[in-house]
Amino acid sequence: MIEAEFPALLTREQAGAAVRARAAAFEVESASLSFHPFAGFIHALTLPRTRAESTIHTLVDRLTGKTFITDPWPELRHTGSGQGRVDDPRWNSISFENARLRSRRLVATASLRKMKLGHNSRIREIQSYEMIWKPNWLLAGKVGDQELKVLVDGMNGGYYVVGC
Amino acid sequence: MKIELVFLVVYFVAMAGIGVWVMRRSSAGAEEYLLGGRSLGPGVTALRLQSSSMSGYMFMGAGSLGYSQGYFGMWYALGDLGGGVLNLSVLGRRMRKLSQILGSITSIEYLEHRYPSKWTRAIAAPIALFCIFFYVLAQFIAGGRGLEMVSGVSYPVALAVAIGVIVLYTFLGGYLAVAYTDFVQAIIMLIGMMWILIGTLNAVGGFTAGNKGVGELDPTMLTMWGKGLAFEGQWGIIIGALLIFSIGYMGWPHVVVSHMAMKRPSVARRAGAYSLLFNLAFIPGPYLVGMFALLLVPTLANPETAVFAVAEAVLPSFAVGIVMAAIMAAIMSTADALLLQAGTIASQDLYARFVNRKMNDGQMVWVSRIIVLLLAVVGYIIAAFDPPAVAEIVIFSTTVLGSAFVPAYICAVWWKKANTGGAICSMLAGTVAAVGWEMAGMAAITGLDPMVVGIVCSTIAMVIGSLATQARHPVPESIVRALDETAKLGPIPTSLMLGQDQTLAAQAEIAGRIQ
User: Fold this and answer.
1) Pairwise CB contact (< 8 Å): B102 & A71
2) Residue B282: which of B390, B223, B197 has the closest Cα?
3) ipTM score here?
């Protein structure tokens, strides 16, 4: 199995700052790095007429099946200790083959929306990763008297409140 | 060539020019394939969304309602204006969260994930396709009528040209359909509508004088009860009118389709605000112009041409060309999005799922092409020989979609016992009730709008169907747990809640469980 990990681009302090940008009173009490599993694919898309080729990166959430087109990835690294990996909630977990199908479908749909029906663009998978672990910071803290847990994307600083 | 036509041609050439320029500028890289338009700012994002969702209805159907029913048409406008807020505040939050947790990309896929069965998709996809066809048909007719008025050629010829241009646009997407053309189209639509509204208000002596004039013709047109107070106290009809473009729109695949690419939440938030501003400026316009057309062009044979006729009456020729370009912009961007959506549903939701599971990319494009051409040919035949009214078609198809899908969407997040059996019963009952009620002309007899009847029937079917099949087909445990997570909505500080990145919802719920 080809397995890799995205490096965390945000430190714990930067993750806290990302939340404080929206809620200045947020105080971090504890922080842990967790890793979410995705399958990763890189496709090459060629237009027959112009022979122009572009690459499209996709990530497929192995635990929900959600598929994204992403920016080109930073350099991947070999997987670490495996600490902080999230459990499978069995909501909609998918196999690698299913992930591959979803990724290809999304690229095909994106190509169709972009090129529409006048082109028969060729899509070729040029690289795949069965598992890419994406880092997220799980912050526990307080806003005033209210306790909060917030997940911060370890790569771009987006966040989502887990619970109170 | 008439000056109006010259402007129309200039407009199409300009759109093509922008397309080619943008394509050359960004010929490489993944950014251009990001469906959510990540590289775009909130203004462009908002306006391109609006130009895709506004349609020929706004220029023909809305004007016709204003012309024939006065301020009664504002019930539809209010639904349209309030719909976005309603969807987001009442329904959107949980639905968005659950769809993220289940990993759904399209509205039909979301239904299949929540109500796991191939039959969910097998029933939902054809209903969506059926309604899309009618909506596209409305765009064809609107385009044909508009071209007929501007060019003076006969309707069948104008219709053929309009459909040809729309289909060509769908096939030439790589050059024409880039975000910036949608953006420019939205600007032209807004300018065109504002221009004609200002011209109309000038011609009738201002808003107050216009209202006074309409009141002298028929005072009942100034009430929201319709001409001759035909709808006074008929809350069944009025609620239906409010529901159609607020809740009914939730059934549209091109409206519900969720974010397929990661977006910065701040862009989405500001885009929402810009969209609301655009709607406030744009939506009331065609209804008002249609109503004041009673003073300016009082003997129209076809009320649907009210906006066109007023444009010709109050604007100089070159401005009519610009307004016509605005109308064609609305029609083309909507028809184009819907035709591609129809192609995607036919190829991915039906062909790949039920006919050929190993469909390759070439087959997907071919299935889409065949569907688009088929819709165009059948659409031409219907629109040329027995054209229905644009407003009627749009309202009918939105009604059917709303009736078929709204209870399934709402119960998906609010009722844990809603199961596959209930959802299938609900979709079928809603569709049959709405179509049957409309076909039998029961709205006029009973005073109940098909939308109200459709939603009541589909809701009852959902409840009975779910309870009756609960023992044999319980909701899977994984879905129940996903719903439990969805329901966890604590008192999050507002400032934090607004900035959340929705794409992290599932990751957050899952990560939260390990602590």
Assistant:
1) no
2) B197
3) 0.87
